[in-house]
Predict the 3D structure of the following.
Amino acid sequence: MAPPPILIGNSDFLKQRESGCLYVDKSIFITEVLARTSEVQLYPRPRRFGKTLSMSMLRYFLEIGKDRSALFSDLAVWQDPLSRQHFQKHAVIYLSFRDVKPQRWDQAEKLLEEVVRAELRRHLDGLRVSGISPRFLAPLEAVDRGEFSLRILDSLCAALQAATGQGVVLLIDEYDAPLLHAWNAGYYDEVAGWFRGFLTSGLKDNPALYRGVLTGILRVAKESMFSGLNNVMVYSLLASERELFGFTETEVETLLHQYGREAQAEEIRRWYNGYRFGDSTVYNPWSMLHVLRKPEDPLKPYWLNSSENLLVRDLLLKSGDLHEDIETLLNGGTVEKRIDENVALRDMNGDNVWSLFLFSGYLKVISQRQEETTTFAVLALPNAEVAGLWRGTFREWLGDGIGGLEPLHRALLTGNAEKVQEILEKLLSLHVSTHDVARNQAEAFYHAFVLGLLVSLEKTHRVRSNREVDVGRADVQILPKSPGQPGVVLEFKKRTGKAGLAWHASAALRQIQSKGYCAELEAAGAMPIHRMGISFSGKDVVVKGARV
């Protein structure tokens, strides 16, 4: 018998089941949501791991309406008596904020209100004929007319409970998508304030609420998002509870047999396995579905999301010196970092970036330990797919418009200071704003920017940053992995205006010589050794070079 067809990009459970396409049974999610005593539950997981499909499934199972038993009768949840007690017994408010990603706050506010108003209108006709008191309808009618209130969830839940006699289920999918986009677009405080008022209305001390379930990528910091909400139970990927998302090893083995792909099992495992959620090792379901759907295609990265890549790229540029740790990871090593489950986007620096990389799916936990209230985790790249994304982040983004980064690498390794200056000028003009520089320590920003350009040199060279050598600390050293290859030492100077850039670039060049920054390259057998002093101001740059 031929295996079922595979539907890609669908997140509607009803369509998935009625189409006869492949569905990996994740209905245990319903059982866990109902069995857990937490009234409000948050499930942060990386994008493309099946959160929206599971939330849609939860809605169809719990929501009063047309009989949906045929969708569930052959799934695991149907065997659970507690879950069956709640089958289609509740009014469900379902909100998804995944598409709220405009460039300005006024546009975002309008879209947020439109999402909520559309869900309100889905319920309003039924409430009008339900016989409930007009006092329940009055605040809903006002919002329908355009008088939006952040307390609308409280009012809608009260009306639905009055109409049905049952507690209401509130499902909010990808609640953090507008926040992640706003962080990049520059209006984070406004959208965080909106959500603070909106969520508090629906989730805090709401007598009409039976369950509130939220999904997203992150547990956004309590002080900025969940202020006043102390009833949210977070089931993060660090928790040891039963994992509800992603494909397990057993499930993948079954799929590979079903689709005749057993011979590729080891290679598929290397590419897509390796995520650690709690005590479980899981595969990326988005990538696995693509692999199964196209057996003739070579294995390749499928897990791409423009908004996530934008955030990671932005943080790699602006979070100081991460290059040595990234090089360690790309070479198959591990790093130990402090991890905070409450990711503070407004203070995204230092160890905070590692928390975001982990929860976004770019890293996995090998082990973790607790020191009082602080969690430390040993981190690694999950698999070959994610390693490729790390390598490509800078190469694809920064190389766009200059024919790739190879010309820059060639200019550095041949000591062509004029060409290095030309390329850096173009990169700064294309990809960096003066606002980017102003909101960071400027020299650290330029330092991290240049380090990002060097990520793809790891095959032939080791890039070292702020290493103690001789009598000082070199900003960047590019050391050959084999003697006889060229090496480079870079020293940076930050200025507040264009005047004097050339003089300070020359001063940086003299500093390399006077403080013996070439010593380690000489010991590594670098031949020749190129010195470059680089002076920045805004988008202006001057590079001076010399050869040892």
Notes: The domain at 306-386 is CATH 3.40.190 (D-Maltodextrin-Binding Protein; domain 2).
